[in-house]
Specification:
Radius of gyration: 27 Å
Helix content: 40-55%
Largest sheet: 12 strands, mixed
Shape: elongated
Strand order of the largest sheet: 8-1-10-19-18-17-16-15-14-11-12-13
Number of helices: 19
Length: 533
């Protein structure tokens, strides 16, 4: 497997700064629009070579609409037999988009295959006069990277028309210029599901981070990059760095040496698996974390859980050692002996669990052991952070100097930041940055396109599937993460996230998303690791 470097991703305001620097160096903005449109038109013509295509372009008022006017013009030159109609939603408002429209209007004086129509006429069922049979390709040039709200009025109506047309005509191809209209490319949010669902997104200048956040996976289709300008040179000129890196492949890892033994590969302690306050047992949490650790090659695993669960764990993982989670002195001794600890899976949230959490976290910090805090551990951590007790605050302050890895989903992150899960989901990047500032350490915000903040850099996981949204997946990931940490794998939290997601994809391809379960992950994790040598 050839390793592909991760893709640098930028916020819209960074893209604006990069472009302005390019224009400042005597590169006209309209020339860049022409270059972008020419490349996109050639791409479309190459991938859809049929000589009798019927094309609809939806153009907005800004420069994204200007791209649309020029793409239509260049397509008419490259494919003179294509029937091309622009649906104009609003008159151009920028100088460049006005020039682009003028270029198209001049073209249609001599080209009978090109037309344009105002959106009101088009939506009033008059599109049937233009497309008596079918539309082959819809090109979306309505909104660019500045959108931060739900499209309304004629824009919303045209997006809804495109949705309906796609449903009734599954062979139609939808191509978005730069970004699917309706998608916020800062956050990845789609407001009330009002956005174009593209088969391809033709991304200009640089990759926008919102194409890989939140709702984006269901709208972007295949991304085709058109870099256009020397992005790395310009970033250096204006001291810009990518906000994140998007990963779709895993790097290689070193093969093991023959003269090694179990002590060479680390010793992990899992602390989790109790009865909840309602009497429900969580034995599986510790078991799944242990299986995730073993599957990823750790040398030894001990699981501190409720004594009622020890036999069940040994019967499933006979190579694991167990300890009663309530034997505080014994568990503290294991913390001292282990190379790393995962704390909180199936831990419980009652007062007794809170007391145990504080004692074990204190011991972890005292012995300076790397630690993954997950699930109920994050619940107790949120309580500690809001406590007025000076001892609790001192414990929270100590986390900043510790080797801690935190793995919340959006609900757990919301409690840590004292906000709602909806607020976290509305801007996952900002939530991740705030958590890092408040607690220190390394962070994984789980979900679609999971985010990892490790060693000060944000990464986006481009692997995984919806079938992984099932009980126990996070427990397995916590065990996998602490295993890679004690094995001293580079960027262990990122690697754990990618390996876990890839294993989920392997299972989904084999058995389908609906039947995917966490207890099946261990063999798939081992399979992924084997492929990385």
């Amino acid at each position: 497997m050839k390793y592909i470097q991760p893709t640098a991703c930028f916020l819209p305001e960074q893209i604006y700064s990069i472009e302005q620097q390019w224009f400042h160096e005597n590169n006209p903005s309209y020339s860049l629009m022409q270059q972008a449109s020419w490349q996109m038109a050639n791409h479309i013509a190459k991938h859809y070579p049929n000589k009798n295509q019927q094309i609809m372009l939806a153009v907005g008022a800004g420069n994204n609409g200007g791209d649309g006017w020029l793409v239509a013009s260049f397509l008419a030159e490259i494919q003179p037999t294509w029937q091309i109609c622009i649906i104009e939603i609003a008159k151009p408002t920028t100088h460049d988009s006005q020039q682009a429209k003028a270029y198209f209007l001049d073209l249609i004086k001599t080209n009978t295959h090109c037309h344009y129509q105002h959106v009101d006429n088009f939506l009033n069922n008059q599109h049937q006069q233009i497309y008596p049979s079918k539309i082959d390709i819809i090109i979306d040039a309505m909104f660019g990277i500045g959108l931060t709200r739900q499209p309304t009025d004629k824009y919303q109506q045209l997006i809804e028309f495109i949705h309906e047309y796609q449903q009734n005509n599954p062979n139609v191809q939808v191509i978005s210029i730069d970004v699917p209209s309706g998608l916020n490319v800062s956050t990845g949010e789609v407001y009330q599901q009002v956005a174009v669902k593209a088969h391809q997104t033709l991304c200009l200048v640089a990759r926008k981070v919102g194409l890989h956040l939140k709702d984006s996976k269901d709208f972007i289709g295949e991304i085709i990059d058109f870099p256009l300008i020397p992005i790395h040179y310009l970033c250096k000129k204006i001291s810009q760095k990518p906000i994140a890196y998007y990963h779709q492949q895993l790097p290689k890892i070193a093969k093991r040496q023959h003269n090694q033994h179990k002590g060479s590969f680390g010793y992990v302690l899992i602390i989790g698996g109790q009865y909840l306050s309602n009497g429900q047992g969580m034995a599986g949490a510790g078991l799944l974390a242990g299986s995730g650790a073993f599957a990823s090659g750790v040398g030894k695993v001990s699981i501190a859980c409720h004594h009622d669960f020890q036999n069940a764990i040994i019967s499933r993982l006979p190579n694991a050692m167990t300890m009663d989670i309530h034997q505080i002195d014994s568990v503290n001794k294991l913390i001292t002996e282990a190379d790393g600890v995962a704390l909180g899976m199936g831990f419980g949230r009652d007062e007794q669990s809170s007391t145990l959490f504080v004692k074990y976290l204190h011991q972890i910090l005292l012995t300076n052991k790397p630690c993954v805090i997950d699930a109920d551990g994050l619940y107790h951590l949120a309580n500690l952070s809001q406590s007025q007790d000076p001892n609790d605050q001192q414990l929270i302050d100590s986390l900043r100097q510790a080797h801690c890895y935190f793995t919340p989903h959006s609900g757990e992150m919301a409690r840590l930041l004292q906000m709602t899960a909806g607020e976290v989901e509305a801007d996952r990047l900002t939530a991740l940055q705030q958590a890092s500032q408040r607690f220190g350490g390394h962070w994984l915000l789980k979900g679609a396109n999971s985010l990892v903040m490790e060693n000060g850099q944000i990464h986006i996981c481009g692997l995984g599937n919806a079938g992984m949204g099932t009980a126990g997946m996070g427990d397995t990931l916590a065990g996998l993460a602490i295993s890679l940490i004690v094995q001293k794998i580079d960027n262990p939290l990122l690697m754990a996230t990618l390996i876990h997601a890839k294993a989920g994809d392997i299972l989904a391809n084999k058995i389908g998303e609906h039947g995917l379960q966490a207890w099946q992950m261990d063999k798939a994790i081992s399979q992924v690791l084997q492929s990385l040598h």
